[in-house]
Amino acid sequence: PDDVEIHELLKGKDIASIAKYMKSKHCKNVFIMAGAGISTSAGIPDFRSPKTGLYSNLAKLNLPFPEAVFEINFFRKNPVPFYTLAHELAPGKFRPTLTHSFIRLLSEKGLLHTHFTQNIDTLERRAGVPDEDIIEAHGSFATQRCIDCGEPYDGDEIKRKIKGKEIPYCNVCQGLVKPDIVFYGEGLPDEFHLAAPSLKNADLLFVMGTSLTVHPFAGLTRLVPRRCPRVLVNLELAGDIGSRTNDVTILRECDIAVRELARELGWEEDLDKLWEET
Ligand code: CNA
Ligand code: ZN
Questions:
Q1: Are 208 and 182 in contact (CB under 8 A)?
Q2: Residue 131 C-alpha to ligand 1 middle, in angstroms?
Q3: Strand 248-250 versus strand 230-233 pairing type
Q4: 152: DSSP letter
Q5: Residue 66 above 80 pLDDT?
Q6: Is 34 close to ligand 1, i.e. is its CB under 6 Å away?
Q7: Does the annotation mark 7 as catalytic?
Q8: Which of 136, 173, 177 lies closest to 157 in space, CA to CA?
Q9: How far is the C-alpha of 49 from the C-alpha of 278, rounded, in Å?
């Protein structure tokens, strides 16, 4: 009977029906999977959008192929592109978006279970989403170590180096220092693997601003129960969202979609207030 009711609520397949469902007794645990698209309106380019994407900008850096910026073997030979990117993403340059504030609002309303992000820009933290609700699946700039001997490297020191466009080297063995960002071929943090199974308790999954092309992150969409609505908010279709009966696809800019959803929920003022205070 619950399944029938949930299906009924979602039938409109639009923002109003998502709001209706969120206000119902069925929606307690909300999960988010996010990618670069939730930060583009802050001025941080995503990877794959043509022209504005980071990949096309990094072409100026003589990368053999764009993904090379996150490849350990390339990094060993030429760490400059990665550190140029790090310089670009330095905290303080960008302000969280309305979508980041919406995620915080979900947490304040007691609905957010876990926010899984592929982003390394830390904007969710800066928007005030509680640390314990965030899984940075691809790591972060919070810690760093030598790629040869593993010696940790001082956080203030690397900030100075990145700011000065210098490359940091290990104080013990002179190896290259790398922030604990997950490069291609590297395993995801333990926290990711520990948190992923909780998706089986999801009542609602938002998939926002991601092309769902990077694995294993993309596979999280399949861990939620079949009746759990999966809502894609993205400029293009992504992954298999749309293939299940309660899926909803909103092909719009995230900031516009979350504003409309907040309005339907009667949260628009709260949302604006949070964002203005950020
Ligand atoms: P991606 O592959 O570049 O996909 C981004 C998606 O977002 C695309 O499908 C776009 O259509 C969509 N999009 C762009 N702008 C908007 C918008 N305003 N509203 C709605 N949708 C939008 O990026 P993914 O995150 O899927 O790829 C995973 C990589 C990208 C991760 O490993 C990240 O570390 C990496 N990345 C992170 C950042 C960041 O931290 N902000 C920036 C660029 C890349
Ligand atoms: Zn070392």
A1: no
A2: 21
A3: parallel
A4: B
A5: no
A6: no
A7: no
A8: 177
A9: 27
Tell me which of 149-158, 180-189, 227-236 is least confident: 180-189
Greatest CA separation for the chain: 64
User: Using an 8 Å Cβ cutoff, are 15 and 249 in contact?
Assistant: no
Atom of ligand 1 nearest to the CA of 41: 18
* Amino acid making up residue 214: V
Return the SS3 of 130: coil
What is the rounded CA–CA span in Å between residue 61 and residue 122? 24
ω into 130 cis (within 30 of 0) = no
DSSP bridge pairs for 204: 30
Ligand 1 in reach of 48 Cβ (< 6 A): yes
What is the β-pairing status of strands 230-233 and 112-117? Answer: unpaired
What is the rounded distance in angstroms from the CA atom of residue 151 to the CA atom of residue 153? 6
Ligand 1 proximity of 257 Cβ (cutoff 6 Å): no
Concatenate the DSSP letters of all residues of 95-111 into one string: PPPHHHHHHHHHHHTT-
Q: What spacing in Å lies between the alpha carbon of 149 and ligand 2's midpoint?
A: 4
Instruction: Report the C-alpha gap between 222 and 90 in whole angstroms.
Output: 33
Q: What is the DSSP letter of 176?
A: B
Query: For the chain, how many residues are written?
Result: 278
CA atoms of 186 and 34, how far apart (whole Å)? 20
Report in angstroms the alpha-carbon separations of 48 from 57, 60, 67, 134, 210. 11, 15, 11, 24, 10
Helices (H), 24-166: 54-58, 72-77, 80-88, 98-108, 123-126, 155-163
Query: Do 206 and 111 form a contact (C-beta atoms < 8 A)?
Result: no
Q: What is the pLDDT of residues 123-139, one digit of tens each?
A: 999 999 999 999 999 99
pTM (predicted TM-score): 0.93
